[in-house]
UniProtKB/TrEMBL annotation:
This is NAD-dependent protein deacetylase. The lineage of its organism: Eukaryota, Metazoa, Chordata, Craniata, Vertebrata. One of its GO terms (molecular function) is NAD+ binding. Its cofactor is Zn(2+). NAD(+) binds at residues 84-88, 94-96, 166-169, 261-262, 285-287, 322.
């Protein structure tokens, strides 16, 4: 995760994600940067010397062209890369939007700087601000969005290879993606561990939820150290699975769909350059993101996205909300009605489950109150 010492500058430059920006990585991070440099040099020499050519997979660089490719039967391994933009319609704020982002509303925690709430050293000394914030964001209070269920449909249709998410809200899991479908690059609330390196006892979501909503600072039953959700803080490494899975997933990708991220947080952003040279890439976002340097883009060089140059041949941008983009693509695929019905059915199920849970909690509280001895008048 990036160093927070220049926090005021980085607040404007970094990704608007509901997760800290993890850049202080293990040696894998250095290897990833080196691989990116090698990819750039290969592309440079290939284009300059006229070695190789870019095959155009899409009939046209439009959403319709992407839909036709998916329906052709040739697209069997789709990877989704997603960020905070897929969860904002669920009511979860991103980090850095002026006025509404999480960082804009942390004054009440009396932090030395906004990023401190996700800095591991600060957390170990002052865990209270993080757990107060966690109570506001805790999984189970929000429903998955249309975009989440579109990804689930890709799985049901047998074409999703993996979803790589920067989010920590677990909405992908609530929408029906399972462990093997998902790489939670910046960690998750789904599990928690004791922070002591000598202990590392694991705790589940329900255990942590009980502590958080009881306003108790979670401490390990075994050694009394702090217990932290498995989200990546500043100063922590990304999950090992992120690095191991990307090496096998991306070379075999037939279509990369990028949604709700400005592609500024590394090493996550570098994943766009790990697909093959002919693999189409679709961006669904409020603005064009991940573009190469303008000069390199004109020359067709580098690993960045190229939507507008004369040499563009595989990158497509849908500018709008992630939900609108997924609905538009589902419509072109002939899946729109199915998607809308899935969302309606699943939201009804979640509401029903929440009502049952609240009723159960109320009964439990009533039973506990009834069992207490009555004070004599």
């Amino acid at each position: 995760m990036s160093d927070a010492s220049e926090h005021s500058k980085k607040v404007e430059e970094e990704e608007e994600e509901v997760t800290p920006d993890p850049q202080e990585l293990s040696d894998d991070s250095s290897e990833d940067e080196a691989a990116g440099e090698m990819d750039f040099l290969r592309n440079l020499f290939s284009s300059t010397l006229g070695l190789g050519s870019a095959d155009k997979v899409l009939d046209e660089l439009t959403l319709s062209g992407v839909a036709h490719y998916i329906n052709s039967g040739k697209c069997k391994n789709i990877i989704c890369m997603v960020g905070a933009g897929i969860s904002t319609s669920a009511g979860i704020p991103d980090f850095r939007s002026p006025g509404t982002g999480l960082y804009a509303n942390l004054q009440k925690y009396n932090l030395p700087y906004p990023e401190a709430i996700f800095q591991i050293d600060y957390f170990q000394e002052h865990p209270e601000p993080f757990f107060t914030l966690a109570k506001e964001l805790y999984p189970g209070q929000f429903k998955p969005t249309i975009c989440h269920y579109f990804i689930k449909m890709l799985k049901d249709k047998g074409v999703l290879r993996r979803c790589y998410t920067q989010n920590i809200d677990t909405l992908e899991r609530l929408a029906g993606l399972e462990g093997g479908d998902l790489i939670e690059a910046h960690g998750t609330f789904y599990t928690s561990h004791c922070v002591s390196s000598c202990c590392r006892k694991e705790y589940n979501l329900d255990w942590m939820k009980e502590k958080v909503f009881s306003d108790d600072i979670p401490r390990c039953d075994k050694c009394s150290s702090l217990v932290k959700p498995d989200i990546v803080f500043f100063g922590e490494n990304l999950p090992v699975q992120f690095f191991t899975s990307m090496k096998s997933d991306f070379p075999n990708c037939d279509l990369l769909i990028i949604m709700g991220t400005s592609l500024k947080v590394q090493p996550f952003a570098s994943l766009v350059s790990r697909v093959s040279k002919i693999c189409p890439r679709l961006l669904i976002n409020m603005e064009k993101a991940g573009q190469a340097d303008p000069l390199f883009g004109m020359l067709g060089l580098g690993g960045g996205m190229d939507f507008d140059s004369e040499k563009a041949y595989r990158d497509v941008a849908y500018i709008g909300t992630c939900d609108d983009g997924c609905l538009a693509l589902a419509d072109l695929l002939g899946w729109k009605t199915e998607l809308e019905e899935l969302v309606k059915k699943e939201h009804a199920r979640i509401e029903s489950d929440n009502k049952k849970e609240k009723a159960s909690d109320s009964k439990g509280a009533a039973a506990a109150a009834a069992s207490e001895p009555r004070k004599e008048e």
